[in-house]
């Protein structure tokens, strides 16, 4: 059936990494299997990796990971995995921002692994009349392990469609002024409530990015460089030098060498040095998740205090802060140029207003 002109909609799809459906071993196991079976994520010969994954990692790690997820799982009817909760809130806020700008742009969220799956969300957008699609990964720094894998899946899904949408992809925005400004405002907002570190007295600010194996850098992946550029731009925006604000990499897995310096050993060393105050922020994670709330805010904090450090301050991720929603809208608008975004009829305008009211009621 032909789609009417008014139904030919523009959509922005936010995509994040993913999360299990519940904080249980039974739910974590299929999520981990999907994630760790991606050849973009683990570049080991398939036969060897299949044995390691299915015979060692999944039986052992599923239960351990479930306990960690349980420690950060958000309660209530609107609760769940923090990554999914914050990502949904971000999508809703971004759609409201577009409506406030007088634009008729569908916004939704999908997960590369787990639910809501990319395929299910894309089909939902197709049913709403999506004709133009902008993919906006919630990975500010490009990596083949995240961004490229997401693009692969988009191409796989739409390759089977009879009527494919116009498609645009945002590769990265690690140095976009609106992104850097949102990071700066998030840090300064925290300092307004908890006091600014005394950098002259040796206090430190640490920017912790998710790690990847060093061989990805050796093979030409720009992720390492983009993380350092984000760190430098944010440090300069805050008026700090390289000794006061450092870049590290977290979440190392396995025995292979990963990007250095590693977050946990660096924090432990600062504790041994009796650092009076350490603030830690994760610029590469737009939404709080297991890696920020459990690993950084809990595990790494304990290592710092046990080593003899003083105050430890975890600064929350951007989540759906006003500066970040404005920044996301600006990043998206930079890539939406030339695509119709204004309601094309009174009926479409009324529909847009109804969506705005419905979103407001849900908040």
Topology, pairings included?
Elements: E1 9-19, H1 25-36, H2 46-72, H3 82-100, E2 105-114, H4 118-127, E3 130-137, H5 144-158, E4 166-169, H6 177-194, E5 204-210, H7 214-218, H8 223-237, E6 245-250, H9 263-272, E7 277-281, H10 290-306, E8 311-315, H11 322-335, H12 346-362
Parallel strand pairs: 1-2, 1-3, 3-4, 5-6, 5-7, 7-8
How would you portray this structure in words?
There is one protein chain. This protein has 363 residues and is an alpha/beta fold. Among the domains are: 21-80, no CATH class; 177-315, 3-Layer(aba) Sandwich (Rossmann fold), CATH 3.40.50. It has 12 helices and 8 strands. The chain has helices spanning 25-36, 46-72, 82-100, 118-127, 144-158, 177-194, 214-218, 223-237, 263-272, 290-306, 322-335, 346-362; strands at 9-19, 105-114, 130-137, 166-169, 204-210, 245-250, 277-281, 311-315. It has a 4-stranded parallel sheet, with helices on both faces. Strands 6-5-7-8 form a 4-stranded parallel sheet, sandwiched between helices. The two termini are 36 Å apart. The model is unreliable at 1-6 (pLDDT under 50).
In short:
49% of the residues lie in helices and 15% in strands.
Shape: globular
**What average pLDDT do the residues reach?**
94
- Tell me the name of the CATH class of the domain at 177-315: Alpha Beta
Strand order of the largest sheet: 2-1-3-4
Which blocks of ≥5 consecutive residues have pLDDT under 50? Answer: 1-6
CATH topology category name of the domain at 177-315? Rossmann fold
Alpha-beta content class = alpha/beta
Summarize the helix and strand pattern as letters. Answer: EHHHEHEHEHEHHEHEHEHH
Query: What is the correct CATH architecture of the domain at 177-315?
Result: 3-Layer(aba) Sandwich
Task: Give the radius of gyration.
Answer: 21 Å
Helix content estimate: 40-55%
Bin the strand percentage: 15-25%
């Amino acid at each position: 059936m032909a789609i009417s002109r008014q139904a030919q909609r523009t959509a922005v799809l936010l995509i994040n990494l993913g999360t299990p459906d519940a904080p249980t071993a039974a739910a974590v196991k299929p999520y981990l299997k999907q994630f760790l079976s991606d050849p973009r994520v683990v570049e080991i010969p398939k036969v060897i990796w299949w044995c390691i994954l299915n015979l060692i990692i999944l039986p052992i790690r599923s239960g351990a990971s479930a306990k960690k997820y349980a420690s950060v799982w958000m309660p209530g009817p609107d609760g769940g995995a923090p990554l999914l909760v914050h990502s949904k809130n971000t999508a809703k806020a971004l759609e409201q921002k577009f409506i406030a700008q007088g634009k008729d742009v569908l916004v939704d969220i999908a997960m590369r692994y787990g639910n809501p799956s990319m395929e299910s969300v894309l089909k939902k957008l197709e049913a709403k009349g999506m004709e133009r699609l902008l993919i906006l990964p919630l990975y500010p720094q490009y990596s083949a392990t995240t961004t490229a894998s997401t693009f692969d899946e988009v191409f796989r899904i739409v390759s089977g469609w009879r009527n494919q949408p116009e498609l645009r992809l945002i590769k990265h925005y690690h140095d976009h002024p609106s992104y850097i400004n949102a990071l700066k405002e998030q840090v300064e907002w925290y300092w307004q409530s908890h006091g600014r570190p005394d950098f002259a007295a040796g206090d430190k600010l640490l920017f912790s990015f998710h790690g990847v194996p060093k061989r990805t850098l050796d093979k030409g992946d720009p992720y390492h460089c983009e993380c350092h550029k984000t760190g430098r731009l944010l440090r300069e925006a805050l008026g700090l030098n390289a000794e006061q604000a450092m870049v590290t990499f977290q979440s190392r897995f396995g025995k292979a060498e990963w990007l250095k310096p590693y977050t946990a050993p660096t924090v432990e060393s600062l504790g041994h040095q009796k650092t009076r105050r350490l603030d830690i922020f994760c610029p590469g994670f737009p939404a709080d998740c297991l890696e920020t709330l459990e690993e950084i805010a809990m595990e790494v904090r304990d290592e710092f205090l046990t080593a003899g450090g003083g105050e430890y301050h975890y600064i929350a991720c951007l989540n759906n802060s006003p500066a970040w929603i404005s920044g996301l809208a600006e990043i998206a608008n930079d890539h939406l140029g030339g695509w119709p975004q204004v309601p094309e009829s009174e009926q479409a305008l009324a529909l847009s207003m109804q969506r705005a009211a419905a979103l407001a009621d849900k908040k």
